[in-house]
Amino acid sequence: MVHTRKRASSEMSELKRTGLRCRAAIVVLSVLVIVGAEISAVSPATAAPKKTATSSTLLTQRVGFGAAVTGGAAASPVKVTDCGDDPATPRRGSLRALLAIPGARYVKWGTSCTTHLKAPLRVPSDTTLDGSEQAVTLTGLNGDYGGLIVDHVSNVIIHNLTITAFGSPALRQFNDRPDGIAVFASSGVWIDHNTMSDIGDKQVSVEGGTTDVTVSWNRFVGDAYNAQYFQIGTQFDGATTDAVQNVTAHHNFYDGPGYRAPSIAYGTLHQFNDVVERWVAYGVRCQRLAQCYLENDVFAATGEGGGLVAVKYKPSGDGCNDSGSRCDSTWGSGTVVDPYLPVAGTTANSSVEQPPCADPPVAPCSPYYGSGPQTFRPGYAYAPEPADATLQARVKAEAGSHAKPRW
After folding, report:
1. What span, in angstroms and rounded, lies between the C-alpha atoms of 324 and 301?
2. pLDDT tens digits, 101-141
3. How far is CA 90 from CA 122, 271, 344, 369, in A?
């Protein structure tokens, strides 16, 4: 079982200090729509995306550390025909039943579905979940459990799903509910073109020494309490296990995060062409020996609560977890290359986030615009676009489930 660790108290305090009080209830109406219906069909007018993926076309879009992922491409597609969920006795044609098929599996949907999960849904190795042909929503409102669990497996693709309303809205502010997609001690994972919102804790978490991950073209949506969008690594044994984690994040749209868009501890992150808008405390945090290469990203602040710093390197507060049992205030290091900062006063790195640099610079000196001790550089092929208003508009239009794909 994946154990989602908490690391939020000091950062929540940071949010409160920077003035996070508003944006609550943005998602409440959408949650109420879901509560009354465990299983619902979507009308044809809203069901069909503008273009669907096949296994071959989907795989042409792989980039980054997860570029070798094939998921269930070796298998013939199977389709979900039952939108229900019965963990004790999975019904034929349900998603839970199809994931129990031995061997590789390429899962599509034969009908548009909103499925209320009754228990976490474990995704096995060699699996593709492809919702591109229908409108597919997974929800678990008021359940004390997470959504999709990718635990000690390999070669997984999660594509074109809407994942929303996990955990209790009344408890989200305490950050003690589960994650939407939880990846733990796995390898070869690609999370692409999904829309995630109203999750009790993190919308995506990557922990436990997971390697070779790409997170691309996703739309992260939140409110004042669902502030933790994307977390990579934890304080718990992170220096030994999470140090090997390597994640590529590109062309994601983080709409209104409090913080963690993403936050990484101990591993390596290559982020390019992401769009982060309307954050409160910060956009990206690269901390606890993590190394980040942030390239051609868009950071569009609003200045709400003074949150004009896009990237931070120092753990918040005293660097301790909620109980104070584990503390690590070690800085991370990063390089920020050619960001687009359309709001006056926005800075990629704050002066207080720049420790004194020796000559030659040594850790934990956090370099600014490409200078300093940063050693990590991505070694794979990719083609970053210039960070400008055109990129910002395109990512906002094309990220998420059933948005107009670029292929």
Report:
1. 32
2. 999 999 999 999 999 999 999 999 999 999 999 999 999 86
3. 13, 39, 54, 53
Please choose, from the candidates 233, 229, 235, the residue with its C-alpha nearest in 3D space to the C-alpha of residue 200: 229
Closest CA to 213 of 192, 245, 244, 189: 189
pLDDT digits (tens, 9 = 90+) for 267-309: 999 999 999 998 888 889 988 888 899 999 999 987 665 578 8
Using left for φ > 0, alpha for ψ between -120 and 50, and beta otherwise, residue 251 falls in left
**Nearest in space to 214 (alpha carbons), one of 380, 34, 45:** 380
Q: How many helices (H) and strands (E) does the chain have?
A: 7, 28
Assigned token pair, 346? 């926005």
Q: N- to C-terminal Cα distance for the chain?
A: 37
Q: Which domains does the chain have, with CATH numbers?
A: 9-398 (2.160.20.10)
Strand order through the sheet with 291-295: 77-80, 105-109, 127-130, 154-159, 187-192, 211-216, 246-250, 268-272, 291-295, 333-337
CB atoms closer than 10 angstroms to residue 298? 25
Residue indicated by tokens 């720049």:
354
Do the strands 268-272 and 154-159 form a parallel or antiparallel pair, or are they unpaired?
A: unpaired
Encoded tokens for 336: 């920020």
